[in-house]
Design a protein that fits this description.
Radius of gyration of chain A: 18 Å
Low-confidence stretches of chain A: none
Number of strands of chain B: 11
Shape of chain B: elongated
Shape of chain A: globular
CATH superfamily of the domain at 2-96 and 163-224 in chain A: P-loop containing nucleotide triphosphate hydrolases
Number of helices of chain A: 6
Low-confidence stretches of chain B: none
Oligomer: heterodimer
Distance between the termini of chain A: 15 Å
Strand content of chain B: 15-25%
Mean pLDDT of chain B: 82
Strand content of chain A: 25-35%
Mean pLDDT of chain A: 90
Largest sheet of chain B: 9 strands, mixed
Order of helices and strands of chain A: EEEHEEHEHHHEHEEE
Structural class of chain A: alpha/beta
Number of domains of chain B: 2
Order of helices and strands of chain B: HEHEHEEHEEEEHEEHEHHHHHH
Strand order of the largest sheet of chain B: 6-7-5-8-4-3-10-1-11
Radius of gyration of chain B: 29 Å
CATH class of the domain at 2-96 and 163-224 in chain A: Alpha Beta
Distance between the termini of chain B: 40 Å
Number of strands of chain A: 10
Strand order of the largest sheet of chain A: 6-7-8-3-9-10
CATH architecture of the domain at 2-96 and 163-224 in chain A: 3-Layer(aba) Sandwich
CATH topology of the domain at 2-96 and 163-224 in chain A: Rossmann fold
Chain lengths: 238, 367
């Protein structure tokens, strides 16, 4: 079953007199619900742009993007925002917790935009923080945490709305090897145990092993890595 | 700044209006060439040293169109008197037989005329603590009542009859350290009420023509020089206020541009988590409104406090009286000031907020 579908997607920067740069070139891609898709490539090859276009965060210059059956660039901004809130979770490369909010408040932040009552929000936030090993520090502020711990909280926040799709942009790029391994293990567990589709972009080829599927990006185009083997215990197929 | 300007301009104009109203006269007759001096006496309590013979009152009363002519004498100004809450106290004598400004009030409040040895005070005049009478120039006055506050020099004036003034002058020669310098049978001004239907300007011209030592001014034209002074100060203040508002607007717009720029990543993150463009716009506008309300309230309270605390200093610096607003009016002015602050903040914040809300989340999150 397809979670995300891109057809003929292009994205160019510049124009209007400036020299246009094509970050994405006619990309066709289907991401299945069982995928833990790892997209690798050199800096500037278009990985982040692909993730942003798929998530509805950047407008494609051409083509269509369908997420959970909705063609996201043909709906209003409010509908697209609602779709993001309901079906997607995000892990960014940079520190993305709000500094004035506690860990618990940061984790529950997406619920503010869902316009629904969440009677079990506190309980759910505690469970998620427990899952990433920070259940005892719910009242702490982000500045009291290390970069790796903050990234774990971001993962907890990404899951609060029970998303179908988790999008991760270089989630471990600023972390040491051990913390990186811990973060990747958490993502692998989420994929395996909670049946969440994961789309992760990274320049680190050694992280490909954590995914069930690998794409290589070169100059705005995607190439399937047919040789990739799913890790033991994964739910997807390579 | 806006609140202070409004208080000063409205207070000044209101003070002039009340002063004209309090005169209760249609025409004011003063010694020729001393209109400004009498205006200063009536408005600011300045001492006058120009007088007319008391007999001019009868001459004026004989002019066609004059219904009543009542002489008044501005005695002297007393600095730091113990019976007045402001620094200067003014003494004012009137003729109870012809008077139509103080007498009606006395009859209404006291049911009788002032007797010898009695006086009535403006709102700021009182009997000193531990005393039973007001002692001036060796003469004791019973303070039998106080007028309503007006914001003019009347608030710091002690009113007495010509007879009492004469007795006080007499007593001062033997009982006071310094004798009260009253010229015998002189007046400072004559208040005139015209016949019903008579033209005030024409009557004023007729008085000026008939009485060589006097100059008659229709009451509506009194305090003209102060009116011009208020207008001049007001024009300057308006220019300063406009500049201040424009500068505030520019500064606030700059502050909001910087705030939006600094938080662009947070905006991008919030948009990724599901915040709509409308949410981002409303968040910034709400922040602007709260800042405007907080800043506006602090500014308004400081401005109002300064106006009350430094009222005397302001009056002496500006050269005209300022009638301070009642608390109800002040509340209205503060609310008006807050509304202006809200509008300025909304205008300053709108464009940065709109741009922030419409920016693509991916662009917001990019370094």
């Amino acid at each position: 079953m397809t979670a995300v579908s891109l057809r003929g997607v292009g994205k160019a920067y510049g124009g209007d007199g400036a020299i246009a740069f094509a970050a994405l070139r006619d990309v066709d891609l289907d991401i299945e619900t069982s995928d833990f898709l790892v997209i690798t490539g050199r800096s500037g090859c278009g990985k982040t742009t692909l993730l942003n276009v798929a998530a509805g965060l950047a407008t494609p210059t051409s083509g269509t993007v369908t997420v959970d059956g909705v063609e996201i660039w043909s709906v209003t901004d409010a509908e697209r925002s609602s779709l993001r809130n309901r079906t997607m979770g995000f892990v960014f490369q940079f520190p993305s917790l709000l500094p004035g909010l506690s860990l618990e408040q940061n984790v529950m932040l997406p619920l503010e935009f869902s316009h629904k009552e969440h009677a079990d929000a506190g309980q759910r936030a505690r469970e998620l923080l427990d899952m990433v090993g920070l259940g005892q520090r719910m009242a702490a502020l982000p500045r009291e945490l290390s970069a790796g711990q903050q990234q774990r909280v971001v993962i907890a926040r990404a899951l609060i709305n029970r998303p179908k799709l988790l999008l991760a942009d270089e989630p471990s790029s600023d972390l040491d090897e051990q913390t990186e391994a811990e973060i990747m293990e958490i993502l692998r567990r989420i994929h395996a145990e909670q049946a969440v589709t994961i789309m992760m972009v990274t320049h680190a080829r050694h992280l490909v092993a954590f995914g069930t599927r690998h794409l290589e990006m070169v100059d705005g185009t995607v190439r399937e890595d047919a040789e990739h083997e799913a890790p033991p215990g994964s739910t997807g197929a390579a | 700044m806006v609140l202070s300007t409004v208080i000063i301009s409205r207070g000044g104009e209101e003070s002039l209006r009340l002063a004209r109203e309090r005169l209760g006269a249609d025409v004011v007759v003063v010694p020729r060439g001393s209109v400004t001096g009498v205006e200063g006496a009536l408005l600011l309590g300045n001492a006058t040293n120009t007088y007319m013979p008391r007999g001019v009152a009868e001459s004026i009363a004989a002019v066609p169109g004059v219904a009543i002519a009542s002489p008044q004498l501005y005695l002297t100004s007393m600095a730091n008197s113990t019976c007045c809450s402001v620094s200067l106290m003014f003494m004012f004598a009137y003729d109870p037989v012809t008077d139509f400004t103080i007498e009606p009030w006395l009859k209404d409040k006291l049911g009788r005329d002032l007797a010898t040895g009695q006086a009535v005070g403006g709102a700021n005049v009182f009997v000193p603590d531990g005393e039973e009478k007001i002692k001036l120039y060796g003469y004791d006055f019973d303070l039998v009542g106080n007028l309503e506050p007006t914001g003019t020099n009347l608030d710091q004036t002690l009113f007495m009859t010509f007879a009492a003034a004469s007795d006080m002058a007499e007593a001062s020669r033997t009982k006071a350290k310094m004798a009260l310098p009253i010229l015998v049978d002189t007046v400072s001004s004559v208040m005139v009420r015209v016949d019903p239907g008579a033209d005030r300007n024409e009557v004023a011209k007729a008085i000026t023509a008939a009485v060589p030592e006097a100059q008659a001014v229709p009451a509506a034209e009194m305090f003209g020089s102060y009116g011009s002074q208020i207008s001049g100060v007001l024009r300057t203040l308006v220019v300063i206020v406009v500049l201040t508002v424009v500068l505030s607007l520019a500064l606030m717009a700059l502050v909001f541009w910087m705030a939006v720029h600094e938080r662009r990543r947070q905006i991008g993150v919030l948009r990724a988590l599901g915040a709509t463009q409308r949410f981002v716009l409303l968040s910034y506008m709400t922040e602007a409104a709260l800042l405007a309300l907080a800043g506006g309230l602090v500014g308004a309270i400081l401005a109002a406090a300064a106006m009350y605390l430094f009222h005397d200093l302001l009056v002496s610096a500006l050269g005209f009286t300022i009638l301070l607003p009642s608390f109800a009016s002040l509340f209205g002015l503060i609310v008006g000031g807050l509304l202006i602050a809200l509008v300025v903040a909304a205008v300053a914040a709108f464009v940065p907020a709109l741009r922030a809300s419409r920016q693509e989340p991916a662009v917001s999150m990019r370094e």
